[in-house]
Amino acid sequence: MLGYFENRAVLFDWLQNAQRQPVTARSGDFPALGMVPADQGLMVLIYQAAPSVLQYKTWEKFAKFARHKGFENVKTRHLDRGLPDKMFGEVYSRFCKSLIGIGHAEGHDIDTGMETEFIAITNPYTDNLNNGFTVKLLFQGKPRMDAQIEVFERGADKTVAISTLRTDNQGRASIPVKAGHTYLLDAVVLREPSADLAAKHNVVWETLWASLTFKVPD
Fold first, then answer.
1. Contacts of 62 (CB under 8 A, 6+ apart)
2. What are the residue boundaries of the structural domains of the chain, listed by start?
């Protein structure tokens, strides 16, 4: 569970049965979401975090992170921009969704307009998952092709398995899932920040993190 702090949130909404509303929360609320749903159906929580900053003292730490997230050419990109190999910064923002099944849990996810996001094509609470759980990954409203998705799978015994896969030419991917397991998907955009953002935070890189969480029923 996480608490809610107004200065850390750019967006905090819920979506259910074609209705989208802001979550009513006050700074310091724990957990952040304390509403009692009035209706049945698939609820999608939507959260965009305010930018945060990381400082890298060494090149190796940044390079390890970038390679882990699928950016094998990061060294070339870094050197081509004439950037220092130590003591540099990154600003990052998170774009999160969570799928919650309430009652019959029927419904579907949509494009919510965040700069990057997953769209759940499959409803994990009502659809047949024999062929996996299908998602579409967007960046600026368009499919992200050949993008890495990291999958965190937690079983009932709390053991976590981590795997990766890549989206197809439509920005889609099918994730094998198991009954009773909880999932977190993430995908990262790595780009040069705008001049204003770089100056404001004293950074040379920007990352945008899309994530999606859900549980497959037993």
1. 56, 74, 88, 90, 205
2. 9-18+40-215
Please state, in angstroms and rounded to a whole number, the distance separating the CA atoms of residues 19 and 116: 21
For residue 186, what are its two tokens? Answer: 């993430």
pTM for the full model?
Answer: 0.91
Query: pLDDT tens, 44-64?
Result: 999 999 999 999 999 999 999
Number of H helices, E strands in the chain: 3, 13
104-to-34, 39, 40, 42, 183 alpha-carbon distances in Å: 21, 10, 6, 8, 20
pLDDT at 17: 92
Q: 170-180 pLDDT, tens per residue? A: 999 999 999 99
Structure tokens at 55: 């400082």
Residue 39: exposed, middle, or buried by beta-carbon count in 10 A (0-12, 13-18, 19+)?
Answer: exposed
